Amino acid sequence: MQPYLDISLLNLNPSSIGVLQWGLVLLSSLAFILLSPLAKNTEQFFKAQVNHKAPNAFMLMGSLVISWIFAKSITNAANLGLAYGLVGGVAYAAYYLSFIVAGYVIYHMRTKGGFTSIHEFLTTRFGKGAMLLFSILIAIRLFNEVWSNTMVIGSYFGEMGSLPYYSSILVFTVLTLAYALKGGLSSSIFTDVIQMVLFAILLFVVLGTIFSSESDFTPATVVASGEWKWEMGVNLLLAAVLQSFSYPFHDPVLTDRGFISKPKTTLKAFLWAGLVGGLCIILFSIIGVYAQHQHMEGQAAVQVARAFGAIILLIINFILITSAASTLDSTFSSFSKLATLDLNLGTSLSFGRWAMVVIAILGTLPIFMDAEILSATTISGTMVIGLTPVFVLWKKEVSSTNYYLSVIGGLVFGFLLVFEVFPKALIFTDGKYADLLWVNFWGILVCFLLYLIPLWRRK
Protein backbone atom coordinates (compact mmCIF):
# COMPACT_ATOMS: atom_id res chain seq x y z
CA MET A 1 0.00 0.00 0.00
CA GLN A 2 1.24 3.45 -0.95
CA PRO A 3 2.22 5.23 2.31
CA TYR A 4 1.07 8.69 3.20
CA LEU A 5 3.42 11.23 1.63
CA ASP A 6 5.09 13.36 4.29
CA ILE A 7 4.92 16.62 2.34
CA SER A 8 6.83 18.47 5.04
CA LEU A 9 9.95 16.92 3.52
CA LEU A 10 9.17 18.83 0.32
CA ASN A 11 9.38 22.19 2.12
CA LEU A 12 5.84 22.97 0.97
CA ASN A 13 2.79 24.26 2.74
CA PRO A 14 0.73 21.17 3.65
CA SER A 15 -2.58 23.00 3.35
CA SER A 16 -1.71 24.26 -0.13
CA ILE A 17 -0.87 20.77 -1.36
CA GLY A 18 -4.06 19.44 0.19
CA VAL A 19 -6.20 22.10 -1.53
CA LEU A 20 -4.58 21.39 -4.90
CA GLN A 21 -5.12 17.64 -4.51
CA TRP A 22 -8.78 18.18 -3.64
CA GLY A 23 -9.05 20.49 -6.62
CA LEU A 24 -7.74 17.76 -8.94
CA VAL A 25 -10.30 15.26 -7.67
CA LEU A 26 -13.27 17.64 -7.69
CA LEU A 27 -12.61 19.37 -11.00
CA SER A 28 -11.83 16.19 -12.95
CA SER A 29 -14.84 14.35 -11.51
CA LEU A 30 -17.25 17.25 -12.09
CA ALA A 31 -15.99 17.57 -15.67
CA PHE A 32 -16.70 13.89 -16.28
CA ILE A 33 -20.17 14.21 -14.74
CA LEU A 34 -21.00 17.07 -17.11
CA LEU A 35 -19.42 15.57 -20.23
CA SER A 36 -20.52 11.94 -19.84
CA PRO A 37 -23.34 10.82 -22.14
CA LEU A 38 -26.72 10.08 -20.55
CA ALA A 39 -27.81 6.51 -21.19
CA LYS A 40 -31.51 6.33 -22.04
CA ASN A 41 -31.74 2.62 -22.78
CA THR A 42 -30.03 -0.66 -21.93
CA GLU A 43 -28.04 -0.73 -25.19
CA GLN A 44 -26.34 2.51 -24.21
CA PHE A 45 -25.96 1.62 -20.55
CA PHE A 46 -24.68 -1.97 -20.84
CA LYS A 47 -23.16 -2.12 -24.35
CA ALA A 48 -21.91 1.46 -24.86
CA GLN A 49 -23.87 1.91 -28.08
CA VAL A 50 -24.52 5.56 -28.95
CA ASN A 51 -26.87 6.24 -31.89
CA HIS A 52 -26.77 2.47 -32.55
CA LYS A 53 -22.99 2.62 -33.06
CA ALA A 54 -20.53 0.57 -31.02
CA PRO A 55 -17.15 2.00 -29.93
CA ASN A 56 -14.49 2.07 -32.64
CA ALA A 57 -11.10 0.38 -32.30
CA PHE A 58 -9.34 3.49 -30.94
CA MET A 59 -11.96 4.11 -28.23
CA LEU A 60 -12.03 0.45 -27.27
CA MET A 61 -8.23 0.25 -27.15
CA GLY A 62 -7.95 3.38 -24.97
CA SER A 63 -10.63 2.09 -22.61
CA LEU A 64 -8.96 -1.31 -22.26
CA VAL A 65 -5.54 0.18 -21.53
CA ILE A 66 -6.54 2.79 -18.96
CA SER A 67 -8.94 0.39 -17.22
CA TRP A 68 -6.00 -1.90 -16.52
CA ILE A 69 -3.50 0.82 -15.63
CA PHE A 70 -5.03 1.22 -12.19
CA ALA A 71 -3.49 3.07 -9.26
CA LYS A 72 -2.04 -0.03 -7.63
CA SER A 73 -0.48 -1.35 -10.87
CA ILE A 74 1.48 1.79 -11.73
CA THR A 75 2.72 1.99 -8.14
CA ASN A 76 3.89 -1.62 -8.46
CA ALA A 77 5.54 -0.88 -11.83
CA ALA A 78 7.59 1.97 -10.33
CA ASN A 79 8.60 -0.15 -7.34
CA LEU A 80 9.67 -3.04 -9.58
CA GLY A 81 11.76 -0.60 -11.61
CA LEU A 82 13.41 0.47 -8.37
CA ALA A 83 14.04 -3.12 -7.29
CA TYR A 84 15.07 -4.75 -10.58
CA GLY A 85 15.66 -1.99 -13.12
CA LEU A 86 14.12 -2.31 -16.58
CA VAL A 87 13.73 -6.05 -16.06
CA GLY A 88 11.15 -5.35 -13.34
CA GLY A 89 9.13 -3.11 -15.64
CA VAL A 90 9.22 -5.66 -18.47
CA ALA A 91 8.22 -8.42 -16.05
CA TYR A 92 5.15 -6.52 -14.88
CA ALA A 93 4.30 -5.47 -18.44
CA ALA A 94 4.18 -9.17 -19.38
CA TYR A 95 0.72 -9.31 -17.78
CA TYR A 96 -0.49 -7.29 -20.78
CA LEU A 97 -0.07 -10.42 -22.87
CA SER A 98 -3.51 -11.04 -21.33
CA PHE A 99 -5.06 -8.70 -23.90
CA ILE A 100 -3.59 -10.61 -26.83
CA VAL A 101 -4.68 -13.98 -25.41
CA ALA A 102 -8.17 -12.76 -24.58
CA GLY A 103 -8.47 -10.94 -27.91
CA TYR A 104 -7.81 -14.06 -29.96
CA VAL A 105 -9.91 -16.38 -27.76
CA ILE A 106 -12.92 -14.03 -27.67
CA TYR A 107 -12.64 -13.37 -31.41
CA HIS A 108 -12.87 -17.09 -32.19
CA MET A 109 -15.56 -17.69 -29.56
CA ARG A 110 -17.68 -15.07 -31.31
CA THR A 111 -16.95 -15.92 -34.95
CA LYS A 112 -16.71 -19.73 -34.71
CA GLY A 113 -18.75 -20.46 -31.59
CA GLY A 114 -21.41 -17.80 -31.99
CA PHE A 115 -21.25 -16.87 -28.29
CA THR A 116 -22.30 -13.38 -27.19
CA SER A 117 -20.74 -13.43 -23.71
CA ILE A 118 -18.49 -15.45 -21.42
CA HIS A 119 -21.52 -16.36 -19.32
CA GLU A 120 -23.40 -17.72 -22.32
CA PHE A 121 -20.39 -19.88 -23.22
CA LEU A 122 -20.09 -21.31 -19.70
CA THR A 123 -23.83 -21.95 -19.34
CA THR A 124 -24.06 -23.63 -22.75
CA ARG A 125 -21.00 -25.84 -22.26
CA PHE A 126 -20.99 -26.62 -18.55
CA GLY A 127 -24.36 -25.67 -17.11
CA LYS A 128 -25.75 -22.97 -14.84
CA GLY A 129 -23.77 -24.13 -11.80
CA ALA A 130 -20.48 -23.59 -13.62
CA MET A 131 -21.59 -20.12 -14.64
CA LEU A 132 -22.56 -19.29 -11.04
CA LEU A 133 -19.18 -20.45 -9.68
CA PHE A 134 -17.44 -18.26 -12.25
CA SER A 135 -19.74 -15.35 -11.35
CA ILE A 136 -18.80 -15.65 -7.68
CA LEU A 137 -15.11 -15.45 -8.57
CA ILE A 138 -15.49 -12.34 -10.72
CA ALA A 139 -17.88 -10.70 -8.24
CA ILE A 140 -15.19 -11.03 -5.55
CA ARG A 141 -12.67 -9.51 -7.96
CA LEU A 142 -14.95 -6.53 -8.65
CA PHE A 143 -15.56 -6.11 -4.93
CA ASN A 144 -11.78 -6.01 -4.36
CA GLU A 145 -11.24 -3.51 -7.18
CA VAL A 146 -13.30 -0.88 -5.35
CA TRP A 147 -11.43 -0.74 -2.03
CA SER A 148 -7.97 -1.56 -3.43
CA ASN A 149 -8.03 1.48 -5.73
CA THR A 150 -9.74 3.95 -3.40
CA MET A 151 -7.33 3.10 -0.58
CA VAL A 152 -4.44 4.26 -2.78
CA ILE A 153 -6.24 7.55 -3.39
CA GLY A 154 -6.98 7.97 0.31
CA SER A 155 -3.34 7.42 1.22
CA TYR A 156 -2.38 10.58 -0.68
CA PHE A 157 -4.69 12.70 1.47
CA GLY A 158 -3.88 11.45 4.94
CA GLU A 159 -2.62 8.64 7.11
CA MET A 160 -4.68 5.47 7.11
CA GLY A 161 -7.55 5.87 9.55
CA SER A 162 -7.47 9.68 9.58
CA LEU A 163 -10.40 11.93 8.68
CA PRO A 164 -8.76 13.22 5.43
CA TYR A 165 -8.08 9.60 4.44
CA TYR A 166 -11.70 8.50 4.86
CA SER A 167 -13.27 11.69 3.51
CA SER A 168 -11.20 11.63 0.30
CA ILE A 169 -12.17 8.00 -0.34
CA LEU A 170 -15.86 8.69 0.18
CA VAL A 171 -15.88 11.84 -1.97
CA PHE A 172 -13.87 10.19 -4.76
CA THR A 173 -16.14 7.12 -4.78
CA VAL A 174 -19.36 9.15 -4.81
CA LEU A 175 -18.19 11.44 -7.62
CA THR A 176 -17.01 8.52 -9.76
CA LEU A 177 -20.28 6.71 -9.08
CA ALA A 178 -22.21 9.79 -10.18
CA TYR A 179 -20.95 9.81 -13.74
CA ALA A 180 -21.02 6.00 -13.94
CA LEU A 181 -24.72 6.12 -13.01
CA LYS A 182 -25.32 8.67 -15.72
CA GLY A 183 -24.16 6.62 -18.66
CA GLY A 184 -23.08 3.16 -17.54
CA LEU A 185 -20.57 1.59 -19.93
CA SER A 186 -21.06 4.53 -22.33
CA SER A 187 -19.77 6.91 -19.66
CA SER A 188 -16.98 4.52 -18.73
CA ILE A 189 -15.61 4.22 -22.26
CA PHE A 190 -16.10 7.93 -23.04
CA THR A 191 -14.20 9.04 -19.93
CA ASP A 192 -11.62 6.27 -20.37
CA VAL A 193 -10.48 7.81 -23.66
CA ILE A 194 -10.03 11.22 -22.00
CA GLN A 195 -8.25 9.63 -19.05
CA MET A 196 -5.95 7.68 -21.38
CA VAL A 197 -4.90 10.86 -23.20
CA LEU A 198 -4.32 12.65 -19.88
CA PHE A 199 -2.31 9.71 -18.56
CA ALA A 200 -0.06 9.68 -21.64
CA ILE A 201 0.56 13.45 -21.54
CA LEU A 202 1.31 13.50 -17.82
CA LEU A 203 3.55 10.45 -18.03
CA PHE A 204 5.67 12.05 -20.74
CA VAL A 205 5.90 15.27 -18.72
CA VAL A 206 7.26 13.29 -15.77
CA LEU A 207 9.70 11.31 -17.94
CA GLY A 208 10.83 14.47 -19.73
CA THR A 209 11.59 16.07 -16.38
CA ILE A 210 13.52 13.02 -15.19
CA PHE A 211 15.69 12.67 -18.31
CA SER A 212 16.43 16.40 -18.46
CA SER A 213 17.44 16.57 -14.80
CA GLU A 214 20.51 14.34 -14.97
CA SER A 215 23.01 14.30 -17.84
CA ASP A 216 24.12 10.78 -16.95
CA PHE A 217 20.58 9.36 -16.89
CA THR A 218 19.77 8.44 -20.48
CA PRO A 219 17.71 5.82 -22.33
CA ALA A 220 20.91 3.77 -22.52
CA THR A 221 21.09 3.89 -18.71
CA VAL A 222 17.55 2.53 -18.52
CA VAL A 223 18.25 -0.28 -20.99
CA ALA A 224 21.38 -1.30 -19.07
CA SER A 225 19.65 -1.30 -15.68
CA GLY A 226 18.89 -4.61 -14.02
CA GLU A 227 20.06 -8.12 -14.75
CA TRP A 228 18.24 -10.87 -16.62
CA LYS A 229 18.50 -13.38 -13.80
CA TRP A 230 15.87 -15.51 -12.10
CA GLU A 231 16.11 -13.64 -8.81
CA MET A 232 16.21 -10.22 -10.51
CA GLY A 233 12.77 -10.29 -12.06
CA VAL A 234 12.80 -13.20 -14.51
CA ASN A 235 10.78 -15.35 -12.07
CA LEU A 236 8.03 -12.73 -12.14
CA LEU A 237 8.29 -12.32 -15.92
CA LEU A 238 7.63 -16.01 -16.61
CA ALA A 239 4.93 -16.20 -13.92
CA ALA A 240 3.16 -13.27 -15.60
CA VAL A 241 3.33 -15.01 -18.98
CA LEU A 242 1.81 -18.19 -17.49
CA GLN A 243 -0.97 -16.29 -15.71
CA SER A 244 -1.85 -14.34 -18.85
CA PHE A 245 -3.64 -17.40 -20.22
CA SER A 246 -6.21 -17.35 -17.41
CA TYR A 247 -5.98 -13.97 -15.68
CA PRO A 248 -7.95 -11.93 -18.28
CA PHE A 249 -10.98 -14.21 -18.17
CA HIS A 250 -11.79 -13.54 -14.54
CA ASP A 251 -11.76 -9.80 -15.20
CA PRO A 252 -15.16 -8.69 -16.56
CA VAL A 253 -13.82 -5.15 -17.04
CA LEU A 254 -11.72 -6.66 -19.84
CA THR A 255 -14.03 -9.38 -21.17
CA ASP A 256 -17.18 -7.21 -21.25
CA ARG A 257 -15.40 -4.99 -23.78
CA GLY A 258 -14.77 -8.04 -25.95
CA PHE A 259 -18.41 -8.38 -26.97
CA ILE A 260 -19.66 -4.85 -27.71
CA SER A 261 -18.02 -4.00 -31.06
CA LYS A 262 -17.62 -6.02 -34.27
CA PRO A 263 -15.28 -9.01 -33.89
CA LYS A 264 -12.52 -7.66 -36.16
CA THR A 265 -12.70 -4.22 -34.53
CA THR A 266 -12.49 -5.86 -31.12
CA LEU A 267 -9.52 -8.04 -32.05
CA LYS A 268 -7.63 -5.04 -33.40
CA ALA A 269 -8.37 -3.06 -30.21
CA PHE A 270 -7.22 -5.92 -27.96
CA LEU A 271 -3.97 -6.45 -29.84
CA TRP A 272 -3.11 -2.75 -29.76
CA ALA A 273 -4.13 -2.56 -26.08
CA GLY A 274 -1.65 -5.31 -25.25
CA LEU A 275 1.19 -3.43 -26.93
CA VAL A 276 0.27 0.07 -25.72
CA GLY A 277 -0.58 -1.05 -22.18
CA GLY A 278 2.66 -2.98 -21.81
CA LEU A 279 4.62 -0.01 -23.13
CA CYS A 280 2.92 2.35 -20.64
CA ILE A 281 3.86 0.09 -17.74
CA ILE A 282 7.47 -0.12 -18.92
CA LEU A 283 7.63 3.67 -19.30
CA PHE A 284 6.18 4.22 -15.83
CA SER A 285 8.71 1.77 -14.38
CA ILE A 286 11.43 4.18 -15.57
CA ILE A 287 10.45 6.34 -12.59
CA GLY A 288 11.63 3.43 -10.44
CA VAL A 289 14.76 2.97 -12.56
CA TYR A 290 15.59 6.63 -11.94
CA ALA A 291 15.05 6.12 -8.21
CA GLN A 292 17.44 3.15 -8.37
CA HIS A 293 19.99 5.25 -10.28
CA GLN A 294 19.81 7.88 -7.51
CA HIS A 295 20.14 5.20 -4.80
CA MET A 296 16.71 6.02 -3.37
CA GLU A 297 14.86 3.65 -1.06
CA GLY A 298 11.20 3.12 -0.22
CA GLN A 299 8.27 3.78 -2.55
CA ALA A 300 9.70 4.86 -5.92
CA ALA A 301 6.95 7.29 -6.96
CA VAL A 302 7.05 8.98 -3.55
CA GLN A 303 10.83 9.33 -3.56
CA VAL A 304 10.90 10.81 -7.07
CA ALA A 305 8.13 13.24 -6.11
CA ARG A 306 10.17 14.31 -3.11
CA ALA A 307 13.17 14.89 -5.34
CA PHE A 308 11.38 17.06 -7.91
CA GLY A 309 8.92 18.98 -5.73
CA ALA A 310 5.32 20.13 -5.93
CA ILE A 311 4.65 20.04 -9.68
CA ILE A 312 5.84 16.47 -10.21
CA LEU A 313 4.12 15.44 -6.96
CA LEU A 314 0.79 16.78 -8.21
CA ILE A 315 1.27 15.27 -11.67
CA ILE A 316 1.98 11.83 -10.20
CA ASN A 317 -1.03 12.28 -7.91
CA PHE A 318 -3.20 13.16 -10.89
CA ILE A 319 -1.95 10.10 -12.80
CA LEU A 320 -3.03 7.94 -9.84
CA ILE A 321 -6.39 9.73 -9.59
CA THR A 322 -6.99 9.29 -13.32
CA SER A 323 -6.08 5.61 -13.33
CA ALA A 324 -8.10 4.85 -10.19
CA ALA A 325 -11.19 6.62 -11.56
CA SER A 326 -11.03 4.71 -14.84
CA THR A 327 -10.85 1.38 -13.03
CA LEU A 328 -13.57 2.31 -10.56
CA ASP A 329 -16.16 3.42 -13.13
CA SER A 330 -15.43 0.28 -15.19
CA THR A 331 -15.91 -1.84 -12.06
CA PHE A 332 -19.32 -0.27 -11.43
CA SER A 333 -20.35 -0.89 -15.05
CA SER A 334 -19.18 -4.50 -15.05
CA PHE A 335 -20.91 -5.37 -11.78
CA SER A 336 -24.10 -3.78 -13.08
CA LYS A 337 -23.97 -5.92 -16.22
CA LEU A 338 -23.12 -9.03 -14.17
CA ALA A 339 -26.14 -8.59 -11.91
CA THR A 340 -28.57 -7.46 -14.60
CA LEU A 341 -27.75 -9.28 -17.84
CA ASP A 342 -25.43 -12.15 -16.95
CA LEU A 343 -27.22 -13.36 -13.82
CA ASN A 344 -30.60 -12.07 -15.04
CA LEU A 345 -31.50 -10.67 -11.62
CA GLY A 346 -33.21 -7.71 -13.24
CA THR A 347 -33.88 -6.30 -16.68
CA SER A 348 -34.45 -2.58 -16.26
CA LEU A 349 -32.11 0.38 -16.50
CA SER A 350 -32.96 1.39 -12.94
CA PHE A 351 -31.97 -2.05 -11.64
CA GLY A 352 -28.59 -1.69 -13.35
CA ARG A 353 -28.06 1.67 -11.68
CA TRP A 354 -29.03 0.33 -8.27
CA ALA A 355 -26.55 -2.52 -8.75
CA MET A 356 -23.83 0.12 -9.13
CA VAL A 357 -24.86 1.72 -5.87
CA VAL A 358 -24.76 -1.66 -4.12
CA ILE A 359 -21.19 -2.53 -5.25
CA ALA A 360 -20.03 1.01 -4.40
CA ILE A 361 -21.31 0.61 -0.83
CA LEU A 362 -20.15 -2.99 -0.36
CA GLY A 363 -16.76 -2.26 -1.90
CA THR A 364 -16.22 0.76 0.36
CA LEU A 365 -17.19 -0.88 3.65
CA PRO A 366 -13.91 -2.88 3.89
CA ILE A 367 -12.03 0.43 4.05
CA PHE A 368 -13.21 0.66 7.65
CA MET A 369 -12.13 -2.91 8.49
CA ASP A 370 -8.86 -4.59 9.45
CA ALA A 371 -6.26 -5.10 6.72
CA GLU A 372 -6.14 -8.87 7.39
CA ILE A 373 -9.83 -9.09 6.54
CA LEU A 374 -9.10 -7.43 3.19
CA SER A 375 -6.34 -9.91 2.40
CA ALA A 376 -8.66 -12.80 3.13
CA THR A 377 -11.13 -11.62 0.46
CA THR A 378 -8.56 -11.38 -2.33
CA ILE A 379 -8.74 -13.74 -5.28
CA SER A 380 -5.19 -13.93 -6.62
CA GLY A 381 -4.12 -14.57 -10.19
CA THR A 382 -2.90 -18.02 -9.13
CA MET A 383 -6.32 -18.99 -7.80
CA VAL A 384 -7.89 -18.70 -11.26
CA ILE A 385 -5.28 -20.69 -13.24
CA GLY A 386 -7.92 -23.42 -13.47
CA LEU A 387 -9.59 -21.28 -16.13
CA THR A 388 -6.59 -21.76 -18.46
CA PRO A 389 -7.71 -25.02 -20.13
CA VAL A 390 -11.36 -23.90 -20.05
CA PHE A 391 -10.67 -20.99 -22.39
CA VAL A 392 -7.52 -22.11 -24.23
CA LEU A 393 -9.34 -25.35 -25.17
CA TRP A 394 -12.77 -23.72 -25.46
CA LYS A 395 -13.63 -25.64 -28.65
CA LYS A 396 -13.33 -29.04 -26.95
CA GLU A 397 -16.65 -30.59 -26.01
CA VAL A 398 -16.18 -31.67 -22.40
CA SER A 399 -18.45 -32.29 -19.43
CA SER A 400 -19.03 -30.06 -16.44
CA THR A 401 -16.87 -32.49 -14.40
CA ASN A 402 -13.83 -31.40 -16.38
CA TYR A 403 -14.64 -27.76 -15.66
CA TYR A 404 -15.08 -28.20 -11.91
CA LEU A 405 -11.94 -30.33 -11.53
CA SER A 406 -9.81 -27.72 -13.28
CA VAL A 407 -11.28 -24.62 -11.58
CA ILE A 408 -11.23 -26.15 -8.10
CA GLY A 409 -7.71 -27.47 -8.74
CA GLY A 410 -6.57 -23.91 -9.53
CA LEU A 411 -8.11 -22.66 -6.29
CA VAL A 412 -6.22 -25.33 -4.35
CA PHE A 413 -2.89 -24.25 -5.84
CA GLY A 414 -3.76 -20.64 -5.08
CA PHE A 415 -4.26 -21.50 -1.43
CA LEU A 416 -1.01 -23.49 -1.36
CA LEU A 417 0.76 -20.30 -2.44
CA VAL A 418 -1.11 -18.04 -0.03
CA PHE A 419 -0.39 -20.26 2.98
CA GLU A 420 3.19 -21.00 1.82
CA VAL A 421 2.82 -24.78 2.02
CA PHE A 422 3.86 -25.65 -1.55
CA PRO A 423 6.69 -28.27 -1.55
CA LYS A 424 10.08 -26.56 -1.80
CA ALA A 425 11.45 -29.53 -3.75
CA LEU A 426 9.29 -28.49 -6.72
CA ILE A 427 10.74 -24.96 -6.85
CA PHE A 428 13.77 -25.00 -9.15
CA THR A 429 14.86 -21.36 -9.12
CA ASP A 430 15.94 -18.95 -6.40
CA GLY A 431 14.93 -15.47 -5.35
CA LYS A 432 11.72 -13.56 -4.98
CA TYR A 433 8.73 -14.77 -7.01
CA ALA A 434 10.29 -18.24 -7.45
CA ASP A 435 7.38 -19.77 -5.54
CA LEU A 436 4.90 -17.76 -7.64
CA LEU A 437 6.47 -19.05 -10.85
CA TRP A 438 6.61 -22.73 -9.93
CA VAL A 439 3.22 -22.90 -8.20
CA ASN A 440 1.73 -21.51 -11.41
CA PHE A 441 3.78 -23.85 -13.61
CA TRP A 442 2.83 -27.03 -11.74
CA GLY A 443 -0.69 -25.76 -11.08
CA ILE A 444 -1.45 -25.11 -14.75
CA LEU A 445 0.02 -28.50 -15.68
CA VAL A 446 -2.21 -30.24 -13.12
CA CYS A 447 -5.27 -28.23 -14.23
CA PHE A 448 -4.77 -29.33 -17.84
CA LEU A 449 -4.53 -32.95 -16.68
CA LEU A 450 -7.67 -32.60 -14.54
CA TYR A 451 -9.47 -31.03 -17.49
CA LEU A 452 -8.43 -33.66 -20.03
CA ILE A 453 -8.15 -36.95 -18.10
CA PRO A 454 -11.95 -37.46 -17.77
CA LEU A 455 -12.17 -36.83 -21.52
CA TRP A 456 -9.45 -39.39 -22.28
CA ARG A 457 -11.12 -41.97 -20.04
CA ARG A 458 -14.36 -41.66 -22.01
CA LYS A 459 -12.43 -42.49 -25.18
UniProtKB/TrEMBL annotation:
Main location: membrane
The keyword Transmembrane belongs to this UniProt entry's keyword annotation: yes
Pfam families per record: SSF (PF00474)
Record InterPro entries: Na/Glc_symporter_sf, Na/solute_symporter, Na/solute_symporter_CS, Sodium:Solute_Symporter
Keywords, in A-Z order: Cell membrane, Ion transport, Membrane, Sodium, Sodium transport, Symport, Transmembrane, Transmembrane helix, Transport
Transmembrane segments: 20-38, 58-75, 81-106, 126-143, 163-181, 193-212, 270-292, 304-328, 349-368, 374-394, 401-419, 439-456
Subcellular location: Cell membrane
The organism's place on the tree of life at top rank: Bacteria
Annotated catalysed reactions: L-proline(in) + Na(+)(in) = L-proline(out) + Na(+)(out)
Keyword Transmembrane: yes
Membrane disposition: Multi-pass membrane protein
Protein family membership: Belongs to the sodium:solute symporter (SSF) (TC 2.A.21) family.
Protein name per UniProt: Sodium:solute symporter
